[in-house]
Amino acid sequence: MPRWAAGGACNAAAMLVRDVMSRDPVTIAPDAPLRAAAELMRERRVRHLPVVGPEERLLGVLTDRDLRHMAFRPALAELLPSTPALARPARVRDAMTWAAITVGPDLPLARAGLVMIERRIGSLPVVEDGRLVGILTDHDLLRALPPAGQRAAELAGFLW
Q: Is residue 47 within 8 Å of 38, Cβ to Cβ?
């Protein structure tokens, strides 16, 4: 929970990823059917699913954008009937982003937000010792903002 929410003064510069990340995120295995992943995302109302292997080791991320790209798979299978990979049911591993950008829990929140903006991504898996410990989403960042009145006071020095 953000520090300001606990009644203390918000020092956004001192906040860390661990202060606002979602702990115990919904995850999925790489061999799960893609349809099951889509249903899980819809049921749990999430747009990002960390893909994990044994011992909660992060392998990648499946996003709603990845699912939209896979929507063209049936049309490709009709156009390219000689491609066996397109004929079998899609798995998470077929659509996921394998090289996910990750952060550690002790990274300053402002730096993590900057990474998300620069890379144009909506989430960052939080990894510690190679294991998934949470996920930082754009919604987590927005919830971490101080209340409007306090935000205006903090920004007053930047306005001219």
A: no
Residue 90: the pLDDT is 85
Residue 156 located in a structural domain:
no
Cβ contact 136:22 at 8 Å: yes
- 7 pLDDT above the threshold of 70: no
Query: What is the distance between the terminal CA atoms of the chain, rounded to a whole angstrom?
Result: 32
Q: Is the pLDDT of residue 1 over 50?
A: no
- Read off the pTM: 0.75
- Radius of gyration (Cα) for the chain, nearest Å? 19
Say how many C-beta atoms besides its own lie within 10 A of residue 131's C-beta: 12
Q: Distance between CA atoms of 142 and 97, rounded to whole angstroms?
A: 24
Within 13 A of 20's CA, how many CA atoms are on the CB side? 29
**Nearest 5°: phi and psi at 14?**
-95, -5
Q: What CATH number has the domain bearing residue 72?
A: 3.10.580.10
Alpha carbon separation from 149 to 27, 97, 146, 153, 155 (Å, rounded) = 37, 39, 8, 6, 10
